Amino acid sequence: MRDYVVPKKKIVCKILRISSERVDLSLRRVTQNEKKQIVEEYSQEKSYENILKSILGNNSKQITDKIKEKESLYNFFEQVKKNPDILEKLVGEANSKRIMQIISKEKTKKSLIKKEFSLTSTKPNGLELIKELLENIKDFEINYLAAGKFSIKTQSEDPKKEEKKLRIILENVEKGAKEKGMEFSIKEK
User: Fold this and answer.
1) How many C-alpha atoms does 188 have within 13 Å on its Cβ side?
2) What is the DSSP secondary structure assignment for residue 57, as one 8-state letter?
3) Helix (H, G, I), strand (E, B), or coil: what is residue 157?
4) For 139-156, how does the pLDDT look when each residue is reduced to its tens digit (9 = 90+)?
5) What is the rounded distance in angstroms from the CA atom of residue 114 to the CA atom of residue 166?
6) CATH for 111-187 (1.10.1740.10, 3.90.550.10, 1.10.530.10, 3.30.70.1130)
7) pTM recorded for the entire structure
8) What's the Cα-to-Cα distance from 170 to each of 70, 83, 121, 167, rounded to whole Å?
9) What is the maximum span of the chain, computed from C-alpha positions, in angstroms?
10) Antiparallel, parallel or unpaired: β 23-26 and 14-18
11) Where are the domains of the chain?
């Protein structure tokens, strides 16, 4: 344990089991995307805490604790971006406007969602079949990498939503490939 955890160091791990005397954790079962998302959310929470401190001063701890009783700061402020009235009820109209001005100026980070896949055909018109299959994909960038290998990618502020869209697109490509007698596979990282 001391190889991975030292005081003040932040790590991302999955909780496997909780028994009365111990907690079983795993570092390996956390994917890179999960780790990246958790680190970004943590960083964003610290940013929200600092915004609250700068606007509310000594009252910020009390407000932060009140929010954290129900949910994380990150989730709270994601809701506030859609419905600012929630924040206004908590901190008042003047403070709410100041906080919302700061939040609206913050750049939202976009995550890159990318997958590599293989698509091949032994038919004489294979290239046309591949083009036909891939040309209908919108909102995603498709790049040719090498013989029969492609990458599909997009950037999004909501990586979970885009991951789902990407999965559905690749399932449709796979289905279309099978119908046309083509070989399809996704490269797993």
Assistant:
1) 1
2) G
3) coil
4) 889 999 988 899 999 887
5) 9
6) 3.30.70.1130
7) 0.53
8) 37, 34, 17, 5
9) 73
10) antiparallel
11) 31-105, 111-187
Cα-based distances in Å from 188 to 31, 101, 114, 118, 178: 12, 42, 11, 11, 20
User: CA quadruple 65, 67, 69, 75: dihedral positive or negative?
Assistant: negative
Angle between helices 73-82 and 60-70 (to 10 degrees): 90
Q: For residue range 79-115, what is the model confidence (pLDDT) as tens digits?
A: 998 898 999 998 999 999 999 888 887 666 677 888 9
Residue with tokens 């994917």: 31
Angle at 156 between CA 67 and CA 161, to 5 degrees: 70
Token pair listed for 184: 């399809």
